[in-house]
Amino acid sequence: MSIGFYNVPEPVNEPVKSYAPGSPERKALQAKLAEMRSNVVDLPMYIDGKEVRTGHKVEIRPPHDLKHLLGYYHQGDKSHVTAAIDAALAARSKWSETPWQHRAAIFLKAADLIAGPYRAAINAATMLGQSKNAFQAEIDAACEMADFYRFGVKCMTDIYAMQPGSNPGMWNYNEFRPLEGFVFALTPFNFTSIAGNLPVAPVMMGNVSVWKPSKTAIYSAAVIMEILREAGLPDGVINLVYVSGPAAGDVIFSHPDFAGIHFTGSTGVFQDIWKSIGENIAKYKSYPRIVGETGGKDFIFAHPAADAKAVATAFVRGAFEYQGQKCSAASRVYIPQSLWPKTWEMIVAQLKRMKMGPPEDFTNFINAVIDEASFNKLKSFIDKARTDADAEVIFGGKCDKSEGYFIEPTVIKTTNPKYITMEEELFGPVVTVYVYEDKKLEETLDTLNGTSMYALTGAIFSQDRYAIEMMTRKLVNAAGNFYINDKPTGAVVGQQPFGGARGSGTNDKAGSVFNMLRWTSVRTIKETFVPAHDFMYPNFLPDQE
After folding, report:
1. Which of 45, 79, 222, 413 could connect to 52 by a Cys-Cys bridge, CB 3.0–4.6 Å?
2. Of these residues, 144, 327, 399, 425, which one is catalytic?
3. What letter does residue 321 receive in the DSSP assignment?
4. By the 8 A CB rule, do 436 and 335 touch?
């Protein structure tokens, strides 16, 4: 029951700590890393608030230190998916009827827990389990997840305030109902904050969810669940299961109460999910909401009037932060001949300063890629570029999995703007450069626009405003998040709503009202204060003599 109009705390982006030598946050994180490395964890699933252990234990090892055992997680099967759905549906009625301010309070508390007592733990879990360095983990796991929760609450209240007008004698209003059923959250390894947001965004709006994290990010997922439980999330509202994709899909996509999916992952998987939903559409009580952010083949395009140093820095950061394992990472770069020698010199100078190794050493910029499958895929593209006539490896290329899945920052230069590594998403520390003739600027822009199926992020560089306007116009459909004189990564919750179109997803913009609206079913209510008592309208009356 609500007995007032409530103003939620105005959200402010969580400040990113520096982790500079001697800083208190650096010392706290180093201590937490040592503690978590020394323990062997045993991670259960969470169904209806209960810890579920199956005895089918799967090892968790750091991608950068394969000899070290972090712990185990308990693998589930279809029966656990069914149990999770049943628990979610049982919790739905009470949760959907919980006044919004009490739902909001849970996630505001969770944000403060993440920013405070759990900051080191969520960052350390991300570093150890997903091989992300301290600064990248801080931006992702701590700050962005806190931002998702705080700004999500604000988005929720903004949505509830979207009300229609009313003529005299009546009152019109909107109710933003949760969906009728449960939402399936399928989350990736590369951003802990996304894993924390995808099951929570629908839940904020009164829904219940079944959450399947990536098998390579279960360590941090368990910490997220611990935080949500401490914040007061009721049993059954979010149910965390560790199952295979087929086990989840077979049960979920044939269930009549399936109401939607919140997804981040590969384009192929998302298309298969869409197909499964289509094949089962007659089974559902309502048309499911399909919300997904998938792949990217993100670009940097430099105009001849670009600042070469800015291009070089955007190139290095955009391509190689978190080993290029970002949907938004720069993967193809177009540089004019007139700017190439100077720009390349600056790129090389920065690349040579990069260190590679485990994230526990805070001086390492490059860490390991996520698993052996990723390592092998990336190595195959690098090996191919070494032998192809229209490509060459001009920097890096060394691959070593003796201790962890390490791949050097690698730059491929091609003479073919349609070369395979200019088209296909690689998801690793490999970027391809095409040097174009200055006179073929607009032709190269057209090539860029038509090269890839994706349209997630992209960046243009120029000091010429007319050129900026022209490139922005010509590339209007090439990226859902478009950057001018900046790298194509680093969207901030509350500032740059994130998502792409074409093969990159449904562009529902995570962390914004556009996404949150997808988890509601609006009911419009009209109340007439003094109803009519006769069917007649004035025009039906006879003329007066």
Report:
1. 45
2. 327
3. G
4. yes
Q: What is the pLDDT of residues 220-275, one digit of tens each?
A: 999 999 999 999 999 999 999 999 999 999 999 999 999 999 999 999 999 999 99
- Please report, for the chain, how many H helices and E strands are present, in that order: 18, 23
Which long-range contacts does 373-378 make (Cβ < 8 Å, 24+ apart)? 374/325, 374/405, 374/427, 374/428, 375/399, 375/401, 375/405, 375/407, 377/426, 377/428, 378/407, 378/426, 378/428, 378/429, 378/430
316 burial class (0-12, 13-18, 19+ CB within 10 angstroms)? Answer: buried
Query: Is 327 one of the catalytic residues?
Result: yes
CB burial readout 396-433, b (16+ within 10 A) else e:
bbebebeebbbbbbbbbbbeebebbbbbbbbbbbbbbb
What are 464-492's pLDDT values in tens digits? 999 999 999 999 999 999 999 999 999 99
Helical residues (DSSP H) of 40-77, grouped into ranges: none
Positions of the chain with pLDDT lower than 70, given as ranges: 1
Strand partners, 498: 510
Crossing angle (nearest 10°) for helices 119-130 and 218-230: 160
Contact 433, 333 (CB under 8 A): yes
Ordered structural domains, the chain, with CATH? 39-294+505-523 (3.40.605.10), 298-484 (3.40.309.10)
Residue 484 CA: distances (Å) to CA of 300, 334, 459: 10, 15, 6
* Whether the Cβ atoms of residue 162 and residue 523 lie closer than 8 Å to each other: no
Q: What is the C-alpha end-to-end distance of the chain, expressed in Å?
A: 59
pTM attached to this predicted model = 0.96
Phi, psi of 345 (to 5 degrees): -55, -45
What is the pLDDT at residue 1?
Answer: 67
What's the full length of the chain, in residues?
A: 545
pLDDT of residue 544: 85
pLDDT tens for 331-378 read 999 999 999 999 999 999 999 999 999 999 999 999 999 999 999 999
CA 329/CA 334 separation, integer angstroms:
15
Q: What is the DSSP letter of 98?
A: S
Among the options 138, 144, 293, 360, which is catalytic?
293
Long-range contacts of 267-273 (CB under 8 A, 24+ apart): 267/294, 267/295, 267/425, 267/453, 267/454, 267/503, 267/504, 269/245, 270/294, 270/505, 273/186, 273/249
Q: Letter for the amino acid at 118?
A: Y
Q: What SS3 state is found at 222?
A: helix
Q: Cα separation of 16 and 412, whole Å?
A: 33
Strand pairing category for 50-52 and 45-47:
antiparallel
- Dmax over Cα atoms in the chain, in whole Å? 104
Radius of gyration of the chain (CA): 25
Q: In whole angstroms, how far apart are CA 539 and each of 38, 166, 167, 542, 543?
A: 85, 24, 21, 8, 9
Q: Which two tokens stand for residue 299?
A: 């670009």
| Cβ burial, residue 139 (10 Å; 0-12/13-18/19+) | buried
Per-residue tokens: 538: 């004035």
